[in-house]
Amino acid sequence: MYLYIKKANHSMIGFFVCYRLYSQYQIKWIHNIMRRD
Fold this sequence. Notes:
Blueprint: H1 2-36
């Protein structure tokens, strides 16, 4: 049970990091489009 929780927690951290990187990239992309106009 503990190993399962540890594994799930690890994947959640990985998902959170990927989500943060993706949202940061999206924000930069939106800023670039706004600047172009």
